[in-house]
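Fresh eyes needed here. I'd like your take on this protein's tokenised backbone:
***
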Amino acid sequence: MSRLRILLILMILGLSVGACRPPAAVPTRAATAVAPPPATPAALPSPSVAASPASLTMPTRPATAELSATAASTSVLPSPAPPTATATQPPPTPCAEPGRVEQGVLDSIVAGEPMRYRIYLPPCYGQDELLYPTLYMFGGNIHDETIWDNLGLDEAAEALIAAGTIPPLLIVMPDNGWLANTTPSGPTSDEGFVLNELIPHVEETYRAMPARAGRAVGGLSRGGYWSLMMAFRRPDLFRSVGAHSPALIDSHAGPAEDPVVTGATNNLGDLRIWVDIGERDPYLPKALPLHEALAAVGVAHEWWINLGTHEEAYWRANLGQYLMWYAAGWPINPADPSAASAFGELPPLPTPGPEPTSLPESFEGAIPVTNEIEALERAIALDSAWATRAKPLAVEELLAKPDSYVVEKYSTWQEASDDYGFGTLQESPSASEPVWVVVLKGDVTVHTMGGSQDTDGITLIIAQNTGYLLSMASTAIQKR
């Protein structure tokens, strides 16, 4: 019994000693870090869809797959399931390539020599199969193919196209050269060059819409006369015609070329017509009969008398209005020349100017000339439109040099003509009103209908009541 007690005591002591030792380290598996379940993304608004040409199919992209929240797990998340729906992609951003102006040369059989031109090509030109409406723009008799480019017509078109105000278009700016100044009409004239050579060349070389619906023609000064002459004779070739400060004079033309005659007698159909001119333009008395003739027979046309005179500043200020008007006659989709709708919503046109039925002694915008200083000021303003001087004239400088000018007032044109030999002024109310004869001396290059010439000055005959330039001589004329 005693032995059993001793053994029991020894066993208890052994267990007690073992319990006091530090336990052996037991390897454990690190717990898997569990990321919180992903939040469901907020619904994105559907992208707006812009109208695109019917011939273009816009690609689509898959809708964003929506991930559902799952319980914590050590397994790899599955890839998103294939989408079951698609969303329309917004139209692509317009190409970064801007529009450009290129120079070209056409070997003309009519002219017997190469004829230069410039052409504006819109952004993205050549990157698609679209055909573009084409605007043919003529300069004046003293200009070449650079005038509309220098005025900024291409920059104005670029800005309006980028703003979505007008559709992309081609603008052809030819040098009509001596041909337009010395020929009337027909196949061997400037008309023959434009209709039979230039237009076919452009439509074969460039992506120009080869149809009446896609053509317009316009011009400034003498170019305005040429555009009216051609469009009124061939309204089947053009949708629109514009004349900007038209100089409706042509010593080589007869009734068959005169827009005042052809506009009232030819069947112009639905030809769109625009005529604008400055209220101080010396050619206003010549343009007014055109407006009267068209109105008399009910031919619809736009007639504008604006502030300004016959100068580059006037045309430059109206470039945007010109382009918007031409574009209003063209379809929205360049690939569809049969479309009737115009491109978008055009900004409203300004309130029309006065529409006098005859040339009165004075009207809104006229500048009466009542004394010698005003006559000099008016003559200087007109001189700047016709002459190029090394240094612009100033009234103060002229008054300081009495031998540099002459100013005389006459009660009628005929009295002035008796002294200076100006000839007869017919069919004008100004023939019976007082006139001012102003001679501005000095070396000057004068630009006239026959071209440019270096002379010893310029002589201007100005109507007293309106400030109109009634006549001009490209020299400092002396009294008889």
User: Anything to note?
Assistant: The two ends are 173 Å apart (CA to CA). The first helix runs from residue 2 to 19. Confidence is low (pLDDT under 50) at residues 12-93, 333-365.
